[in-house]
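U., I forgot to send this yesterday:
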Amino acid sequence: MTALQAEDVTLRYDGRPVIERLNWHAESGRIHTIVGPNGCGKSTLLRAVAGQLKPRSGGILLDGKRLSGFAPRRLARELAMLAQSPDRLPDMTVRMLVGFGRFPHKPIWGASRPEDEEIVDRAMEQTGTRRFAGRKLAALSGGERQRVWIAMALAQQPRVLLLDEPTTYLDVSHQLEIMELIARINRSNGVTIVMVLHDMNHASAYSDEIAVMRSGALYACGRPEETITEATLADVFGVRATIGRHPLNGRPYCLVTGLLNPSDRGEER
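Result:
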């Protein structure tokens, strides 16, 4: 079943064209990743899918209905967006922040109900953040903070979770911790995940399907075995790479060995 769909979507940002007539879809209950070089339109597309950016033409559909047809609170019950970590942190405790995820479900001006508190507790338990529920965000490490943001999104109880570069600025161990958490959320909650990643090996290891973007267009879309190829890395990123198979999961992994000369790259689409 298709959860999200982009139909002939054209997007402008600050008056300039970013994406032209793009078609793409995400299947329900699966992990979808969008990759591509800087400036190709990945985050712009994710913002449009989140309903934060209105297409110039075409439309984004959730379960066959255009996002423009959803009231904001109704859309927030279906879809949660976790942007890149903010530079300035709100001066509040972990539990207070996670509690904000219940806003779309509570009556307007209503206080938290026992069921809201239970859902907040469950979201923190699932993300391993309950043990520092009373601490301020500024006192946490980068990996801990990222888990708190994900807990807030989980408290929202969305069917679709959008993540914009969730491992940015994290060290290797915390990157893996976040990727494993995302995979567990997908498996245990059945949440459809759509995320933007820079690390091709993370994309390959954790995604059911990968969309590769280049210059505002969809270059390729499919399983990791179909999209993580030497040709893709050469054409899209301008690098020479060797593709192998991971000894544990059999997924492709890439080892970048050098830059290609512009004349060696494929023709722009």
